[in-house]
């Protein structure tokens, strides 16, 4: 039985996130494999970096596949990056997987997630009747992939992203049993800890996965010569400095002498 953590990288920017994510998983001694889906735009030097950090680097190329669903998807190029995530269901060499966005950081071992069924995820902070699609447990299956692709063509995504697609596909999630619902500790929105500080002060030490939701990612922050992060841009960064520093600490531990 083979199980894996899976992430997605469609360009060199997000690759930075994925590299740090992979190291964070190794740091907490996961016993599972770590896989990354990449697309054609990822440069060769970046691919080499990813090959070093991940057990599996899987090139996703819609144009080279021939099944009916893929052909239908080709007629909907605007769904682009969103749909790339569903290719995770094609990793059928694994019996179960945990998908993690490239902008997540694992700070405690989460191998127990593999005891959960498809689909298991945490509520979205903005609309808790939807699950946040940055962290979820799923079961790879060619049949499910086909159905997801058909669903994408027939229904589309109500938010233009993968979350709007996956929530209408797995529409049983809000009323499914507790085994389908992950604690916020597995998908802690780094913005939220900032806005509900007392809860973070009480429960923050229990957090297992930090999720840097939003356009401004940890790798966009500037740093002083001593490595301390600081916000340099006019667009207010929404994540707490504490968590961004945690992300950079993992980066420094593994990449400071060989910056990706
Ligand atoms: N992603 C990517 N390239 C992109 C946008 C997104 O590879 O241009 C992948 C990456 O794994 C990312 C995930 O899709 O973590 C979801 O996007 P993002 O995390 O930016 O969304 P948010 O969590 O901020 O809503
Ligand atoms: Mn994300």
UniProtKB/TrEMBL annotation:
The Enzyme Commission number assigned here is 2.4.1.186
Q: Name one GO biological process term.
A: glycogen biosynthetic process
Keywords for this protein: Cytoplasm, Glycogen biosynthesis, Glycoprotein, Manganese, Metal-binding, Transferase
Question: Could you confirm whether the keyword NADP appears in this record?
Answer: no
Keyword Signal listed? The answer is no
Where are the bilayer-spanning segments? none
Annotated Gene Ontology cellular component terms:
cytoplasm
So what does this thing catalyse? Answer: [1,4-alpha-D-glucosyl](n)-L-tyrosyl-[glycogenin] + UDP-alpha-D-glucose = [1,4-alpha-D-glucosyl](n+1)-L-tyrosyl-[glycogenin] + UDP + H(+); L-tyrosyl-[glycogenin] + UDP-alpha-D-glucose = alpha-D-glucosyl-L-tyrosyl-[glycogenin] + UDP + H(+)
Its required cofactor(s), as named, are: Mn(2+)
Task: List, in alphabetical order, the Gene Ontology terms for molecular function in this entry.
Answer: glycogenin glucosyltransferase activity; metal ion binding
Where's it found, cell-wise? Cytoplasm
Q: Which domain of life is it from?
A: Eukaryota
Q: What does this protein do?
A: Self-glucosylating initiator of glycogen synthesis. It catalyzes the formation of a short alpha (1,4)-glucosyl chain covalently attached via a glucose 1-O-tyrosyl linkage to internal tyrosine residues and these chains act as primers for the elongation reaction catalyzed by glycogen synthase.
Family stated for the protein in its record: Belongs to the glycosyltransferase 8 family. Glycogenin subfamily.
Name of protein: glycogenin glucosyltransferase
Supply the source organism for this entry.
Capsaspora owczarzaki (strain ATCC 30864)
Q: What is the lineage of its organism?
A: Eukaryota, Filasterea, Capsaspora
């Amino acid at each position: 039985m083979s199980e894996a953590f899976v992430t997605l990288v469609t360009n060199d920017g997000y690759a930075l996130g994925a590299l740090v994510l992979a190291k964070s998983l190794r740091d907490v001694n996961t016993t599972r494999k770590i896989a990354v889906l990449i697309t054609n735009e990822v440069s060769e030097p970046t691919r080499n970096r990813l090959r070093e950090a991940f057990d599996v680097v899987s090139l996703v190329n819609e144009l080279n596949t021939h099944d009916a669903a893929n052909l239908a998807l080709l007629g909907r190029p605007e769904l682009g990056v969103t749909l790339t995530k569903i290719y995770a269901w094609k990793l059928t060499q694994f019996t179960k997987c945990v998908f993690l966005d490239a902008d997540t950081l694992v700070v405690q071992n989460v191998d127990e997630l593999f005891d959960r069924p498809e689909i298991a995820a945490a509520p979205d902070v903005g609309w808790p009747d939807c699950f946040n699609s940055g962290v979820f447990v799923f079961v790879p299956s060619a049949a499910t992939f086909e159905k997801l692709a058909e669903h994408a063509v027939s229904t589309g995504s109500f938010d233009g992203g993968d979350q709007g697609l996956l929530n209408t596909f797995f529409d049983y999630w809000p009323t499914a049993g507790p085994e389908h619902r992950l604690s916020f500790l597995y998908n802690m929105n780094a913005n939220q800890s900032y806005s509900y500080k007392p809860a973070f002060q009480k429960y923050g030490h229990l957090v297992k996965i930090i999720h840097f939701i939003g356009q401004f990612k940890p790798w966009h922050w500037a740093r002083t010569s001593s490595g301390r992060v600081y916000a340099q841009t006019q667009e207010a960064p929404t994540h707490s400095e504490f968590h961004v520093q945690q992300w950079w600490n993992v980066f420094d531990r593994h990449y400071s002498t060989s910056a990706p």
